[in-house]
Specification:
Blueprint: H1 11-22, H2 26-36, H3 48-61, E1 65-69, H4 75-83, E2 89-94, H5 97-110, E3 116-120, H6 123-128, E4 136-141, H7 148-155, E5 159-168, H8 184-198, E6 202-207, E7 213-218
Parallel strand pairs: 1-2, 1-4, 2-3, 4-5
Antiparallel strand pairs: 5-7, 6-7
């Protein structure tokens, strides 16, 4: 196999990338700073360029109903909400009122709070409570890794014909190819990636954005 065409991002190159198309605005930067103040857990926040990509994709798809599984402090929700079509809604699923309260403040500042419904409950319960005929135009999974498969199986049957499901952390800092890595999260990510590849209902592409992002849509 030929050498990968992609390049690793140095800090300087990442700054150039942000300066030329994905630099956070004042509200986003405030949210990044508020999340960073939480300490090491802040690494769960998606990268600014991933947020910009998600906004771009949601706008291109004309998304009217979106679902997010795993909201954390709300950066990804802000990105999706900004990309919704007029009248569009985003349903956010999370279990932490403390972390999502940071997001609620910034959604208000960004003028998108009226587009976001946050449900504090186990995400699988929220997804299962959706009507079976509820069409999802855009979904994002970035939550507990062992439950990825369960979330996938609730969302895929509800995807609209042109709907897209994004799944984060599918490269898991490279541990997916480390034979010595056998922790529960790594094993779950490997199993999820293999399951998606084998599922004939969908087609997918895995991209090296941030920690690995898989895009999934209905096949055919």
């Amino acid at each position: 196999m030929s050498d990968p065409k992609g390049i690793g991002l140095t800090a300087d190159l990442h700054e150039y990338l942000l300066a030329n198309g994905a630099r956070p605005d004042a509200v986003q930067q405030s949210l990044i700073d508020a999340t960073a103040a939480l300490g090491p857990v802040a690494r769960m926040q998606i990268a600014p360029e991933q947020g910009a990509f998600m906004t771009f994709l949601a706008r291109a798809l004309g998304v009217r109903f979106a679902v997010e599984v795993g909201t954390f402090t709300g950066f990804s929700a802000l990105a999706i909400a900004r990309g919704l079509a007029p009248g569009g809604k985003l349903l956010c699923c999370d279990v932490s009122d403390e972390w999502t309260s940071i997001g609620r403040t910034h959604w208000q500042q960004a003028g998108v709070a009226d587009r976001v419904e946050l449900r504090i409950a186990p995400a699988i319960d929220t997804l299962r409570a959706l009507p079976s005929d509820q069409r999802i135009d855009f979904a994002f999974i970035d939550a507990d890794k062992p439950s990825y498969s369960a979330y996938f199986h609730e969302i895929v049957p509800r995807l609209s014909p042109n709907g897209v499901l994004l799944v984060d952390n599918v490269l898991w800092s490279g541990r997916v190819i480390d034979p010595a890595a056998d922790d529960a999260d790594t094993v779950a990510i490997r199993a999820f990636n293999e399951m998606v590849l084998a599922d004939t209902r969908v087609e997918s592409v895995m991209l090296p954005i941030s920690d690995g992002l898989t895009l999934i849509r209905l096949a055919g």
